[in-house]
Amino acid sequence: MTDNIPQTDAEHVAASRPKKLRLVRLFLWSAVALLGGGLLFMMVSEKDRETVEQDNYAGSVGGPFALTAPDGSIVTDQTLKGKPFAIFFGFTRCPDVCPTTLSRLTKLRKEMGEDGNKFEIVFVSVDPEYDSPEDVGRYIALFGTPIIGLTGSSKEIADTAKAYHAFYEKVPVEGGDYTIDHSAGVYLMDAEGNLQSIIDYHEKLETSLAKLKRLVG
Amino acid sequence: MPVRSIFAAAALTGVVLLSACDPAPEAEAPAESETASSQINISNAWSRETAEGQDAGGAFMTIANTGDGADRLLGGTTPVAQEVQVHTVDMTGGVMRMRQLKDGLEIPAGGTVMLAPGNFHIMLMQLKHPLEQETTVPITLQFEKAGDVAVELVVQPVGSEGPMGNDHD
Questions:
Q1: pLDDT average, residue stretch A14-19
Q2: Where residue A108 sits, what CATH number does that domain have?
Q3: Given A31, A60, A89, which residue is the final one in a domain?
Q4: Potential cystine with B112: which of A88, A161, B64, B108 (Cβ 3.0-4.6 Å)?
Q5: pLDDT band at A72 (very low <50, low <70, confident <90, very high)
Q6: Are residues A92 and A123 located together in one domain of the fold?
Q7: Whether residue A54 sits in one domain with residue A73
Q8: Spans of chain B below 70 pLDDT
């Protein structure tokens, strides 16, 4: 409106209306763009943060442990080195999630054919009080595929779970018995013993299969 | 980045946020009258084989209540286990938490409740002997209103995720 060019009233109105509208429109679109850009930035930075967190986590999962196999032999992280493995924490008296997870791993291994033998399945009991090496041996034998079933003293199991950032906690139930809350994910570890990915209980079998293929690939 | 993609991303974010705010649909229990009664029908009752020394097993089934009053599954008895409890499984945060439903499991009037792996189940505790596949196990379930209901559990291989040994998904 600071134009020095003389204009008639009619000309002035005709010229300034669209200009005003244009300004309003520009302002509105800028607001939308800023808002959208802001949201996008938030999305991107959130994603970055997740990736960083996952990477940090990946480096810290796994580590030294020593547990007992059903035949009485000691299995350590060094014993497992050189071959990828899928490690799962559970207990033999878990009637639901544990057998489901182990039998899914068995099915997936069979589906992979030859490649299915290129990784070990490791089951670690988080119930040292109840699960003897023999109990674990009889339990894993149900699944009809070679599984390295491990148990140990309370401390040995606590140390192993800590190395894998696996959670477990004994919870009393009515009648003097107890159940155990525990991490239900399957940690997929490469031949060097580093975490590659985690199989979630709720994911589709195809997703788990792709992860296992990548593990042995 | 083209402006249009930013708008699209913003719009998409809006949609995602909106759908995330959508409350999960909840089953509404019909109003119960004084004379309401429950009628319990149990189908596809099954269990999983267990190893020797593994002294707990799960039992799964479909429970339908065709009556006009809600009922509750409280527990039961079976010759193969010392104790029968109704449990639920919570998998929040990737942690398996199994809990006894001390007040039982509601079976709404006209409703059907599935007891399945990773969800509600009946826990057979302190098994007296291992459950062998291709056998059946009798169990008497106790309901608050319908009283005792007897069923036979078909013992499936350990890898089963359903009454017919069907797979996941």
A1: 56
A2: 3.40.30.10
A3: A60
A4: B64
A5: very high
A6: yes
A7: no
A8: 1-35, 165-169
In-domain check, residue B30? no
Q: Number of C-alpha atoms within 13 angstroms, CB side, residue B165?
A: 10
Nearest to B98 among A39, A96, A183 (CB): A96
- Let me know if residue B21 belongs to a domain: no
Assess whether A123 and A35 both reside in one domain.
no
Suggest the residue from A107, A168, A173 to mutate for an interface test with chain B (most B CBs closer than 10 A): A173
Query: In angstroms, what separates the C-alpha of B117 from chain A's closest C-alpha?
Result: 5
Strands A178-183 and A168-172: antiparallel
Q: For A148-178, what is each residue's pLDDT tens digit?
A: 999 999 999 999 999 999 999 999 987 788 9
The reported pLDDT for the residue numbered B20 is 42
Pair A3, A22 in one domain: yes
State residue B11's pLDDT score: 47
Residue B112: give its domain's CATH number. Answer: 2.60.40.1890
Q: What total of structural domains would you count in chain B?
A: 1
Share of chain A above pLDDT 70, in %: 78
A39·B3 Cβ contact <8 A: no
Instruction: Flag whether B33 is in a domain.
Output: no
What residue numbers bound the domain in which A26 lies?
1-60
Domain that holds residue B58: 40-156
ipTM of this predicted complex? Answer: 0.72
Dihedral over alpha carbons B43, A202, A132, A191 (to 10 degrees): 150
For testing contact with chain A, the best of B4, B17, B54 (most A CBs within 10 A) = B54
Question: Residue B94 and residue A93: Cβ atoms within 8 Å?
Answer: no
Whether residues A8 and A114 fall in one domain: no
User: Does A177 or A116 have the greater pLDDT score?
Assistant: A116
Q: What is the pLDDT, as a whole number, of residue B125?
A: 93
Residues A112 and A171 in one domain: yes
